[in-house]
Please model this.
Amino acid sequence: MKQITDEVIHDYQANLWKSAVERHGTALKVPSDEQQRIGELVRGLYVMQTWQAHGSQGNPVRFMKDYSISMNVIGVLIPAFLGKQKLVEIEEVKPVKRADRWRTLEEWAKKHTYHEVTTEQLVEISGFSYQTVLNYVKTSPYFRRIQRGQWEVRDPKEDRAREKN
Model:
């Protein structure tokens, strides 16, 4: 792994511009998309320098993605400056949303109609606190209270149809 200093970044930028000028004649004739790419590569190097200044902790790909460096730039810089380190993109773990937890609990209730459950079991299934689950089941059409801490799982559509008849 190379230590990235300001001098290394300056030399890398100079080499990129030198090769671009050789291909196009003058710096003024270098297309704007290539100028943009050179700028992004240099910015990516500064981000890698920051990563190294923070002690090279964690995954460099994730660190660079936090700075909105594109995967194309990451794919060029990591092998060139960090050696044979793998370019494994970290799968972003999405936090579970509250609405998804409630939806999961309701889906579970649909599959387990007419079962008797305790509030503690519902806490384990939903992942919410005891008090939150208790407040939910008191107002939810999917559960009917049998006794303190005991609930019967119900089918609200069937209950409504039965009430109409």
Remarks:
- Residues 88-93 have pLDDT under 50 and may be disordered.
